[in-house]
Amino acid sequence: MSRLWIGSEKFTLVDHGVLVAAAPPWVEPIEASLRSAGGTPQRTDTFEETVHALEFQQPEFLIFSEGFGSYDFNPNPLLDYIQWLSADRRRIFFVAFISPKVKSGDLLSAFSYSVNLVLHPDHLSDLIGMIGKSWSIWKDLYHVYLQTRIQTTGH
Hints:
Layout: E1 17-21, H1 27-36, E2 40-43, H2 47-56, E3 61-65, H3 77-83, H4 87-90, E4 94-98, H5 107-113, E5 117-119, H6 127-153
Parallel strand pairs: 1-2, 1-3, 3-4, 4-5
């Protein structure tokens, strides 16, 4: 988490942990966009693998899609997991949710899904730009909270 606030204020994915939990056909374009922006995405293939990575590797960014980890149109288990995280755990990473059911960048939808950014798959070509804008808003909102938490608790 401490890496979120080191370096320039400009958004960059270099040196940030980016976890990708996406269903085909979106995983390849997501990873290609992240790599082109200097990121090093880590792909997970199952819900269990993703939860393990969130708990023990603590990436700064999670990008996941509708349909990941769900079968037969059941609710998305990763979305359920994120929505039930405690506030202090949820605030330490940025979440982007990709779904054909949302309008890209809609703040109300993002709030209702408990994520930082919602993105329609048609806008994957602008993934980095959309994350950058939304991350800036998130950083402005939580910067003081996270800095104070680090100073008082050490993590």
